[in-house]
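Entry type: protein chain
Record version: 2
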Amino acid sequence: MSNSIRAIKGLVALVTGGASGLGEATVRRLVQQGASVVICDLPVSNGHKLVEELGEKCAFAAADVTKEKDVLKALDVAKTNFSKLDVAVNCAGIVIGCKTYNFRKGFAHSLEEFSKVVNVNTIGTFNVIRLAAGLMGKNQPDEDGQKGVIINTASIAAFDGQCGQVAYSASKGGIVGMTLPISRDMASDGIRCCTIAPGPFSTSIMMGLPDKVQAQLVNEIPFPKRYGYPDEYAHLVQSIIENPMLNGCTIRIDGALRMRP
């Protein structure tokens, strides 16, 4: 029986939001496993510093994922520096908190802010997917006919959205909803698509919450009773790349947490 595990060594990946949080952990793990990585993040990010630290296996592409020209430039960095693209990991995202209508203060959710969250999280993710797929399609297929892997980041808020998470939940629900049809769209061309839906992880956004809120969140996680470590997310990214039967699915990584309203 042949070994179906795909090696990470020698692959080329693009990681959006790659200069911090879950994206940074993914960059570090993929480089550690022998991949070359294009770190795609905003110009004000720590992308350049991360490249200096990790060396020639990395390149930085300053980009806003909602802008076609920026993503195309990032893909050009992959082609110029590493000649191809095998993996795209979408970690770029933003979050806000606001109720649909605040009756106590008498104002509705900002339509501009709702649109911004959906634009970055959902449309930005799709923008990277549609353009990265074009470059992956030029690869030589492996023994299964695979040419590439796309991995997105949703959230358990896509399923258990809490009060004040309407924009964030909608944006992440959109990512979950497009995962299967995208995998079906690209099946005949050998490109897989999966999504990860993390619970609370120890990123700068989560660690910036008040101590009381953090303690309440941790208390509601059945097991293990702690935030996830960013490298645990990155480990799942690695597993999806390595396992060719993972396709068209959304995987929760949340310690069995189901968030209350």
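Comment: The CA atoms of residues 2 and 124 lie 38 Å apart.
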